[in-house]
Amino acid sequence: MSGRLEGQVAWISGAASGMGEAAAELLAAEGAKVAVVDIQAEAGQQVAARIAARGGEALFLECDVSQADPVRDAIEATAARFGGLQILVNCAGVVHVAPLHEYAEADWDRLMGVNVRAIFHAVKHGLAHLGRSRRSYVVNIGSVGSFIGQAGTPAYTASKHAVLGLTRSIALDYAHLGLRCNCICPGITDTPMLRYHLATAGDAEAVLASRLRRVPLGTALTPADIARAILYFACEDSAGVTGTSLVVDGGYTTAAEWDAAPPSARE
Questions:
Q1: What value does the CA radius of gyration of the chain take, rounded to a whole number of Å?
Q2: Residue environment code for 4-19, b if the CB has 16+ CB neighbours within 10 A, otherwise e
């Protein structure tokens, strides 16, 4: 690793699993002191312990990011422990699979709370710390669903459209502080949330194989693929880039129709 994040402090929500876990480990490997923020206490503690075992510095903070006070407290605890805050990664996310007319208000509110309101809380309470640095970074996790629709996930799709719009507003409003805000929009990524989503359709492996036939590269992304994109936006490798999105989807959104050849046919 290059150590490009030496002296930086990163607060990462959803860091107990999936993309957030991979981001926490990669940013720590690049020298950042990392707050592992998640509602899943046991898994989050394990992530922080692995980072420490590899010589990094990490703090686990149990936090329901849909609520203002826990987010504020987690950010303050991070800044107090590590002496500042330069990087916010809003990676926490949930999905609810059902047609809109079957949603309860609680289903809608919970999803919007985790996927969108959490970003509001993190930026609102993190800004005072971020603004103390000449350069700071907010990285939000959107989705290919920030641009297109997907059957059976109306609230998720609405939330990811909102994440992209919110990213642009944050970038505009706080550029004068040296803060850059960008959005990563992953495609089919093999995470626990994807596995939950697939399980609602019955034969998860068959559904995944069917979906991957619409991906030109023919394979699912890994959390590590998304973590590398997060790192790009969380340092000066992306200097001059703000208020935009980076689609990491294996080519999924490049065409309206596509059937990928099996990987073995391209070897």
A1: 18
A2: ebeebbbbbbbbbbbb
3-state secondary structure of 28: helix
Instruction: pLDDT band for 186, please (50, 70, 90 cuts).
Output: very high
Query: Which residue's entry shows tokens 């990491």?
Result: 248
Strand partners, 247: 185
Place of tokens 């987690």: 74
Q: Return the number of other C-beta atoms located less than 10 Å from residue 213's C-beta.
A: 12
C-alpha span between 126 and 144 (Å, rounded): 27
For residue 184, the cross-strand partners are: 141, 246
Lowest mean pLDDT across 30-34, 117-121, 181-185, 189-193: 189-193
DSSP state of 67: S
- Give the residue numbers marked as catalytic: 156
Q: What is the DSSP string of 175-192?
A: GGGTEEEEEEEE-SB-SH
Full-model pTM? 0.92
Instruction: Write the Ramachandran bin of 95: left for phi over 0, alpha for psi from -120 to 50, otherwise beta.
Output: beta
Bridge partners, residue 89, by sequence: 12, 139
For every residue of 75-115, DSSP letters joined together read: HHHHHHHHS---EEEE-------S-GGG--HHHHHHHHIII
Q: Residue 92 in contact with residue 14, Cβ under 8 Å?
A: yes
Under DSSP, is residue 9 helix (H, G, I), strand (E, B) or coil? strand
Q: Is 6 helix (H, G, I), strand (E, B) or coil?
A: coil
Q: DSSP secondary-structure letter at 266? A: G
